[in-house]
Design a protein that fits this description.
This protein is α+β, with helices and mostly antiparallel strands. Helix content is about 40%, strand content about 20%. The protein contains 21 helices and 21 strands. The strands form 4 sheets. Strands 12, 13, 14, 15, 16, 17, 18 and 21 form an 8-stranded mixed sheet that branches. Strands 3, 4, 5, 6, 7 and 8 form a 6-stranded mixed sheet that branches. Helix 2 crosses helix 11 and helix 4 crosses helix 5. The N and C termini lie far apart (about 70 Å). The structure holds adenosine-5'-triphosphate. The site of adenosine-5'-triphosphate has 14 residues, from strand 1 and strand 2.
Length: about 600
């Protein structure tokens, strides 16, 4: 059974017309119930504005200039006309819609409606063409992409063309969170939101909404309940809460816990499947094999298990002394060319801290000491590879001493870990089984936070004509929204200010994003996408920001005073990985404790 792409277009139109999460869920439930199983995964990916799960290293990302050529060819109009309209409308999707409606009207006047061709515009067809576009590589691939896209547009209706173009240019942005899709799948195929926990666990294990949708629709909830981590598919990472004193940590941990160095590097999940293929996934589940050939090498030779999924931190080390270097040095690896040179200049070491699967055994439901033991059994330690340094403590003094030691060796602090029988690997969750203790908590807001840009203001004076200030927000995972916490205009270099507009160009939208909660109205709204690190002097109550609104005092939110960009764009974090509203509330409370 096939599904016309027009049905997806109607879904997108309905979803765009609401900003309420519950309504979005209802609309999706109805759609999923009527969607043939054979295209369910494709429909899910397309609705998220992509073709595959995030971890597949293939991107559509067709350049604007190729899209302009394709639109022009599809309606036999000059490129200059498409360009002029683009300048006026600023949205290539709208340009395609408008050019096609004009073209179709003219075609109708010539007694040719093209209806016969329209029949083939099914979801499957659109998906297959987009897939071919994504895979086209090498010589002649640009022409091939233009040909495929213009043929597809020629057959499409104006509205279909709008969404097709938005998909290929990476500008779908319907504002639907993964969690909303999970809710809708649970209701559509398992009868109610009660099934949500099992659906979410399966998602945390596989990071693949499309596969989950198809499994649920064809095999039912039982099949999802028994899902295990699969080498090759990244598991969503377990995350830590934070506290600011050894006493609080020990109390929370029941008096005894393991503490480990918190290395200042890049988190990595290393997978080896049954065919011996090794893959490295970043904290945001992207494949990073290309950045770390040396880590692939270490994993191949120093981890003795046929199949495994382990986690650790990649740290840059000094090529002469072997000392650990700050996180920033790893950024040299995040480039397309010259990785070999970067590898010589900034060698990497691997500090392993967890094992989720060893020799096919799912360890995620085992307590941490068992997982660490299995990790230790398969790791052949050496100069460049070792387990995270660990100690088991039951008094504040020992914890503090170990902390000082970690700092003196160039770490950020410690991660305390529960070692009791319930200390399972909680994929995709920030919880109290892990608690981080970082140096900077001890001096009020020396501490940095990672915030999401949700709006922007034009600069004045020397910054006139450029974006001078960003409206920043923390993430509220309960409601799945971003709540504003400060406006930040310091810490940016002149070059950064000059380049800010083009950096943010793709994120600028004409209205407040449905997942943003703000009392302020910036000059430009941004789709939440960029995460940046900010330091402030302190956290204060604020009548104008929505972060923590009403949680400390009725009618007041929390704001970061004197925020300053640290120079660090946290490109490895997704907006949902930003500092949470609850973390800001906790930081405010711990500030108060210090003052009193
Ligand atoms: P941060 O920005 O503070 O690193 P985060 O949001 O990336 O935080 P958290 O779970 O809050 O992640 O903090 C733990 C992070 O610390 C892990 O994601 C990992 O990258 C890093 N890390 C370093 N050493 C360890 C360790 N021994 N055990 C667990 N995580 C560690």
């Amino acid at each position: 059974m096939s599904l016309m792409y027009q049905e997806l277009v109607e879904l997108y139109d309905r979803l765009s017309a609401t900003t309420k999460r519950l309504e979005m869920t209802d609309i999706l439930v109805q759609f999923f119930k009527n969607c043939p199983n054979s295209v369910l995964d494709k429909a899910v990916y397309l609705t998220q504005g992509r073709l595959y799960p995030e971890f597949v290293p293939l991107e559509l990302g067709v350049a604007d200039r190729l899209i302009i050529k394709s639109i022009a060819q599809s309606v036999a109009a000059p490129e200059s006309e498409v360009n002029a309209l683009y300048k006026r409308l600023g949205d290539l999707g709208k340009v395609a819609e408008s050019m096609l409606s004009k073209g179709k009207k003219q075609a109708t006047l010539c007694f040719f409606s093209g209806e016969a061709r329209r029949d083939k515009v099914t979801v499957e067809h659109v998906y297959n063409v987009l897939d071919r576009i994504a895979r086209a590589q090498g010589e002649g691939s640009q022409e091939e992409k233009i040909r495929l896209l213009s043929d597809l547009l020629r057959d499409a209706s104006p509205r279909e063309a709008m969404y097709i173009v938005r998909t290929v240019s990476g500008a779908m942005r319907l504002g639907i969170a993964d969690m909303t899709i999970l809710d809708a799948l649970a209701i559509a195929f398992a009868g109610s939101k009660d099934a949500r926990e099992s659906v979410e666990r399966a998602y945390n294990m596989t990071s693949d909404l499309g596969t989950i949708a198809v499994t649920l629709a064809t095999e039912g909830i039982g099949a999802l309940r028994s899902i295990k981590p699969i080498p090759g598919r990244p598991v969503r990472p377990m995350l830590a809460e934070r506290l600011s004193s050894p006493e609080e940590i020990l109390e929370k941990m029941g008096g005894r816990c393991a503490v480990e160095y918190k290395y200042d590097g890049e988190r990595v999940q290393i997978h080896r499947d049954g065919d011996g293929r090794i893959n490295l996934f970043s904290r945001r589940l992207e494949n990073i094999n290309g950045h770390y050939p040396d880590v692939l090498e270490l994993a191949a030779h120093r981890l003795a298990s046929e199949t495994f999924i382990v986690e650790g931190e990649i740290v840059a080390v000094d090529s002469y002394t072997g000392d650990m270097l700050p996180f920033q040095e790893l950024m040299h690896r995040r480039r397309k060319y010259g990785v070999d040179e970067a590898m010589q200049a900034y060698p990497a070491a691997l500090k392993l801290f967890d094992a989720l699967l060893v020799e096919g055994d799912d360890l995620t439901l085992e307590p941490y000491p068992v997982r660490r033991e299995r990790l230790s059994e398969i790791t052949r330690e050496g100069d460049r590879i070792s387990l995270a340094k660990q100690r088991v403590v039951s008094d504040a003094r020992s914890l503090e001493n170990f902390f000082e030691e970690a700092i003196s060796e160039g770490c950020e602090g410690l991660v305390a870990k529960s070692i009791d029988s319930s200390s399972v690997y909680k994929a995709g969750a920030r919880g109290w089984l892990w608690i981080k203790y970082k140096r900077d908590y001890r001096s009020e807001m020396q501490d940095s936070v990672d915030l999401v840009a949700v709006g922007a203001y034009w600069g004045t004076g020397r910054r006139a004509g450029n974006i001078g200030t960003l409206l920043l927000a923390a993430y509220d995972p309960d409601e799945d929204v971003f709540r504003t916490v400060c406006k930040c205009s310091t810490g940016f270099s002149d070059e950064e200010i000059a380049g800010m507009k083009s950096l943010l160009e793709k994120d600028i939208i004409s209205h407040k994003h449905p997942r943003v909660d703000s009392k302020l109205s910036p000059d430009m709204w941004l789709s939440p996408s960029k995460v940046l690190e900010v330091r402030g002097a302190e956290i204060t109550l604020s009548p104008i920001h929505t972060c923590g609104l009403g949680m400390i005092r009725d009618g007041s939110g929390l704001a970061i005073r004197f925020p300053r960009f640290t120079g660090r764009w946290r490109s490895e974090k997704r907006p949902e990985d930003a500092t949470t509203v609850m973390e800001i509330v906790e930081m405010y409370k711990s500030q108060l404790k210090k003052v009193s």
